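task queued by scheduler; priority normal; single chain, no ligands, no partner chains; default sampling; output format set to structure tokens
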Amino acid sequence: MSDARIEAAWKRFQERLDSARPHEVAQELRDLFVPDNVVEELLRRHELETTRIASLKEPLGLGRPDALPWYTGPRAGDKNWPAFEARVRRSLGPDVTTKLDEASTRVVAMLDHPATPTFRSRGLVVGHVQSGKTSNFTAVACKAADRGYRMFIVLSGIHNSLRRQTQTRLIRDVVSLNPPLWHQITSPERDFVPPPNAQSFLASKDQRLLLVVKKNAIVLRKLRDWLEQAQEQLGNCPTLIIDDEADQATLATRKINPLIRDVITRLPKVCYVGYTATPFANLLTDPRDHEDFYPRDFILSLQRGETYQGPETLFGRHPVDGEDPEEVPGGLDMIRTIPAVELDDLRPKKATAAAQFGPAITDSLRRATLWFWIATAVRQLRGQRNEHSSMLIHAHSDTRVHDSYRAPLQDLRREVTEGLADGQPALLGELRRLWADESERVDNTRFGVARPSFEEIVQELGEVVDSTKIVMDHYRSNDRLDYDSGPVNVIAVGGNTLSRGLTLEGLVVSFFVRSSNVYDTLLQMGRWFGYRPGYEDLPRVFMPDEIRRWFVHLATVEEEMRKEIDRYLTEHKSPLELAVRIRCHPKMRVTAPSKAGAAVRSAAAYGGQLIESHYFPCAPEQDVQDWHNTNAKAVRGLLDAAYTEGRADLGVKSGRALWRDVPLSSVMDFLNGYAFHPKSVEASRSLMRQYIERRSQSGALVSWNVGVVGNAVQDEAHTVSLPGNISVGLVTRTRTKGSAEDDVADIKTLTGSRDEALDLKIPAGEAQMNRSRLQELRVQQQPERGLVLLYPINAKSQVPIRTKDGVTAEVEGRAPLNAPGEVVWGAAIVFPRPSQVGSDLAVEYDYLAADLREVFPSASEDEDEDVSVLEQDLDNDAEDGR
């Protein structure tokens, strides 16, 4: 057969694939007496195309091993995806469009073929906060509609604002591009209201149905009952349910969870796909319950773009297994501290005081607001006059507190407007100093953007300030965020409605004093994550120090979780084998207890862990010097015991020393005397002692090795003497730039990637080492012996100078240590993983469920994500489902 006839047959084969599965189409062709060699060639092409999609490196994905490969990607004649693709290409460029195309194709390939007689599958797409999940599921809906899916139900959060925003975007990006192909059953103004004669809607094969609904009990009951009326027609209506914010309300809720299940059971051909950036609860759902929402059929992990500003970009994080500490992000210098003394002026001390509360424009709130206006003026000078610019103030969950901010902010706007008009020297001087300070702290040249002069900025400021809207965005407010009526400069004050899914367009400044002790809730409140094209240097986040440290922990947890997911995906585990480990925190919960069930343990074992000091007090007060002196005394005591009771191993080698067989009693004395800073919550003295005592009762950890990790002596002035008349050079450990002004320095990491190998024999030829490999070697060589590593740190450590790509500069994101005295002693404890499986002894985290009030006395009402809206009918919900 000629190539032309093969191509014609291939086109026909593809067209038939929309309504029949590959093997069925092949049999149809054979029944029409198409030669077997032609049919085999068409099947071969089909297999090549599906294999190409399955082999795409991004996003990583994992599906059912027995799934039918069917999707071969977009093709000529499609209507929905080409139209949306053209829009994305115009607005975001070809590179972003290509990545979106590949990622959405991977998702569609995981769905069931729409011609499958019956199916009810469940999948999960893991994205990042404010990183384009909506674009991905819009593309997925377009491609699925082109291939035969007919009904699209988007579950869009629990608030009207998010549902309205999602509906508006889908109208813009899908419906309006192909109006004859779509019928909207919902609209921006109205949630689901059952149209009459459900059978006629569902019987038509020419139109796709779009429903964007809140996770609201009344709405979902109406949807369930409407679908019940058309059971005969639903058999020919392949349905895609997209659950935006799939970890919110869908899981473990008394009303919403059963109702979403009810909707699914009414649909004989349905694929449920959850989208979330915080999948902690989803991954902890019981997979044995076939009706619940564990992603048993597929999981995909979307990649973030290179310019995405996520938790680790803004806050930095600690190293995870296998990483070189020098390569771990330290965080951009964009986080500003709200002093603890201001908190009582920014939020009520307790929930009962909300009605009478009135906020003050504190120094930090004033600075944040002035910077918002400066940054907006800079954006205009960079050609972004037609772009939205937003500031977020998130102080509390109570709507009365939101409303109390209106008058003070209006007064500040009036003061600055009049001051600029009058050219008041004090105000202009304040603004000039703010611009000089902030523009120096983040290098604009790194992002390739211009840095205007202050004089240029002042010319823009008057119009920027005067045009700024102050909006109280909460479910009782009539004055809501509106980004659809032209460019807007807006200060948005809110709580729950701004903490989930809703995009604040052009977000530049976030002022955040609301708190939560739940991983997923706190991450979702981080509306400041995302893409900031053309103003990457301008975002600033104001928050208390404690919350900032929690975000550092969360950045580490998130990176570790994603690596864990990616590891399973690259090992081709099935979703039912995906048991992702999520690091715990004594003062935080992974997710709400109702979602976690028994999956989150309130216990931990130290086996295989590295505990290290990375917080050091640096204030000049005498008690800080005493703290360091006490630690130095504990270190000296351990070194003396190691010298007299242990066995020296090769003396000093390259600035390092090691003693073996140091008795447990000496190590326990050291733990009693050495203080890890309270911010190092994993380094609890009582828990470590309890753990060691338990294991020592079975003969483990009764003998220890003690090492000193220093440098070769190069400068006698920067050395420390050890027992045995030997010396080592001091090591350099600088603090993160974000903690440069703090009384407590955060050095992020103390140990180097190979330090744990100090007492091990490394096999010849193994140049690359990570913690997993070192743990294996320790189990083989010293399974019952612990290791203490001591680090003499130069108290005045300066930021190292590095040369990269021919440019010599200080290491980015670091600042001098500036600790009191000359030497700061850091300590790391390496706990071996027991050689006998199951022999590790868990130590209860007796403060794991500590109430957040112990940290933020005024935040008790914010301890968990507020889903009270789920159990009530707001506004006119009971009447019309809005």
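post-processing summary
- Residues 595-604, 842-882 have pLDDT under 50 and may be disordered.
- The radius of gyration is 30 Å.
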